[in-house]
Amino acid sequence: MKFSKILVGLLIAATSTIYAQNKEVSLEEIYDGTFRQERLQSLQSLNNGKEYVVLNRDRNANSTSIDVYSYKSGEKLRSLLNSDNLNEISGFQGFALSEEEDKILLSTNVEQIYRRSSRGIYYIYDVEDKTLTKLSDNKVQEPTFSPDASKVAYVFENNIYIYDIASGKETQVTTDGEINKIINGVTDWVYEEEFAFVRAFDWNKTGTHLAYLKFDESKVPEFSMDMYGQDLYPSQHVFKYPKAGETNSEVSLYTYELAANESEKVELGDYEDFYIPRIKWTQDPEILSVQVLNRHQNDLDLIFVDAEDNEAEVVMNETDEAYIDITNNLTFLEDNSFIWTSEKDGWNHIYLYDEDGELENQVTKGNWEVTNYYGYDKDSKKIFYQSTENGSVNRDVYSIKINGRSKTRLTEKEGMNSADFSADYTYFINSYTSTETPYEFTLHNAKNGKLVRKIKDNSALLEKEAAYNFAPKELSTIEVNGNELNMWMIKPNDFDENKEYPLLMFQYSGPGSQSVSNSYFGTNDYWYQLLANEGYIIATVDGRGTGFKGADFKKVTQNELGKYEVEDQIAAAKKFGELDYIDENRIGIWGWSYGGFMSSNAILKGNDTFSMAIAVAPVISWRFYDTIYTERYMTTPQENPSGYDENSPINHVEKLKGDYLLIHGGGDDNVHVQNTMRMVEALVQANKQFDWAIYPDRNHGIYGGNTRLHLYTLMTNFIKEKL
């Protein structure tokens, strides 16, 4: 749990468009910051488990500090560092502590690359002698201390370097790195996006070896995007992007021995067209763990590599008829036995294996899901986790002995509970919300869940909202296609069951996702309050393929993305239309990304049910999306052409009857604007009228400046005009 972080304070103030008694709050007020959320800083536990550090910024003084606070009292105790005392820099954007907390990496001039990756100028601060050392004159990626903090490894222009802090000597580990060809030590685009990691190197426990991945993406097809900017001529952003069925990077594993200054390739075995989604050194400094996954992502080997001779041995294998989710839950105990999570009994649970990969114990079991694994406390021999034991729309935090006994529920309130533990598992900060309660933050004793102190609540938000007469978010279920599906509904605050109202449905519906939970309003929910006050009913239904109700429910959509999920949305809409207070001729649907794929399919396949749809940044054909995500659920288009084509909106454009709005960001590196352009052309050739908007240079989130204000104004006006 070292370096654990928590972002507390998700909704201290609201973002909404509503009617406040006799006063209307405008969309402009939302997006100019009038209702900006107040947030608490990210907290990081110190090794002693009794204190945590926070990055504080004084904008007036233009300074940054790392301040130490007491868990128990919440009071500031001291500062580890204040930029006012540094001559070399005026401030910093982020920090990382060394393992012994005696040195700190400070990041400055950070620039974003993709969703998770960035580069910046870094400095090393020595806590004891208060000196500051510049790591490199170049903007580098993923700088990481060695275990004893004597060195820092980092990546620059696709090569790995090691900087010796005492001598100032820099050693170049790899030399073949080349943009859009060879990558060492960080991941390519598709690994970053779909396996959710960037740093592809790892120090062993004693700092004598560095393991790293090499990506040869020379055969991966390139994708290009025109970026219009402010110059006379547009620029072109070109990067490697493997679409479904196309060539992936060839990935290989190396170990680098510092004393010998030599890298050696690890021969993992007779694998073809495979992924290495995780590498991690075990408690034994000579043993590296490697996860190797086949391209279909349904056959996973856990391999141990002996660094002395680079011999590789498979210690555990897991298979699934559909796919295996990759997580960060692998934890090695002192004897190299390990904790693992798996859906192999049909529900996601925690397992204990010995150092040879033999199953010792299934720690948790039951018809519910472990939704977060928080870690293991070696002193109490307890595992801490979050689960759906009290219903799929709720979350609670538990502890359990590693032998599966003495399970203790550590949270009390029904709703969504999540935890962040101190380094020694003495305390945890609980984040709690429900449909009636904005986020509350409290400190608890990890032994029994007893409340230590209240940190912050949203009483001020509730007082502010009282004037606006919000309609509640009503949680319930609806029986559709033989399943009890979770749903919520927001009605006008002057709802009259004797009247008929138009209905707007929202969904996402991607594999394993969840849009219906026992949680308070998010930003879109406040927008829904505006629509409700305009006389609309808003509803969301989590259909088949969504998560937290077991593997069978989630994986029923395998090889058929867009079939069962769309059937459930259409059936739910028809059932809503049978209600006396819903106008069956005025039912709309909207979604973003996977949700845009869904809303597009819904108005086409359900053209007698939906009269309006909005699709934001939609996938129009899974042939256009990346290998890892798409093939996990669909295999390749060469193997499954009907699955790709029969559920692609582009092949059903002739069915369009209602009003359809397409929206996309022109700089979307994730779901390319190609999707929308191909859909536009198909609709034009089918002579179907529709509306569309492209936001130049905007990425998948479509934000920046007034962009969100413009986007939501566009959608609001479309809904009011068409539905």
From TrEMBL:
Residues 528-723 form the Peptidase S9 prolyl oligopeptidase catalytic domain. It comes from the Bacteria. It comes from Salegentibacter maritimus. Residues 99-439 form the Dipeptidylpeptidase IV N-terminal domain. This is S9 family peptidase. InterPro entries: AB_hydrolase_fold, Pept_S9_AS, Peptidase_S9_cat, Peptidase_S9B_N, Serine_Prot_S9B/DPPIV. Keywords: Hydrolase, Protease, Signal. The keyword Signal applies. Pfam families: DPPIV_N, Peptidase_S9.
